[in-house]
Amino acid sequence: MTKFELVAANANNGWDDVDKKHWLIWSFSKAAPTVVWRGDYSSYQELLDKLEVHYGPSDNYKMELYHRRRRENETLRSLAQDVNRLMALAFPDSSDRRSPMLDCIAKEAFVRALDADLASWVLANNPQNLDDACRCAHRIEVLRRGDLASAEARGGPYARRKARDVSVAESVSGGRRVMNRLTNRSG
């Protein structure tokens, strides 16, 4: 639609609203003509309104916002910027960009995009909006990196400790060996 609006706004075309309506109908592809078949739209604006209701991108952006997850190596700041972008696209008619409801939706989308451990730490700090949540998440990540770096630098007993996964079969057979040794000693 944006591309069509740019072409229609070109002063060299000299299109009025009737011309815009006809050119828009002519440029439809795939399933869009079915919107026109369902009714007579006397004006270009009525046709745009009907298309917006039928194919409204805001629902798609709301779904994208809900399912957004942090990508590998994505910074927290770029994640927050993307959440802001999706908020603007999902709620285009919101005159008040700083409403408590939109702040809450943006904050929840940001937290939902984080890994579970980081998200729980961020929520424990009770951020009020997206910016607070981003600052909190950044602070927690910096602290995590510092703890890991200092543990590795110390070379302490827990720095490189690895656990071996023992299967049930191994534990049963190991238990039998121990029992056999104990019974052989006593007899």
Structure description:
The protein has 187 residues and is an all-alpha fold. The chain folds into 2 domains: 2-55, no CATH class; 58-154, no CATH class. It is 68% helix and 0% strand. The chain has 10 helices and no strands. The chain is elongated.
SS element count, helices: 10
The portion of residues assigned to helices is 55-70%
Shape: elongated
Q: Give me the secondary-structure category.
A: mainly alpha
How many runs of DSSP E, i.e. beta strands?
0
Radius of gyration from CA coordinates: 30 Å
End-to-end span in angstroms?
Answer: 89 Å
Write the element-wise H/E pattern from the N-terminal end onward.
Answer: HHHHHHHHHH
Please, what is the average pLDDT? 76
Instruction: Provide the domain count.
Output: 2
Largest sheet: none
Strand content: under 5%
Low-confidence stretches: none
Secondary structure layout plus pairing:
Blueprint: H1 2-9, H2 17-26, H3 33-37, H4 44-55, H5 57-67, H6 76-90, H7 100-113, H8 116-124, H9 130-154, H10 168-186
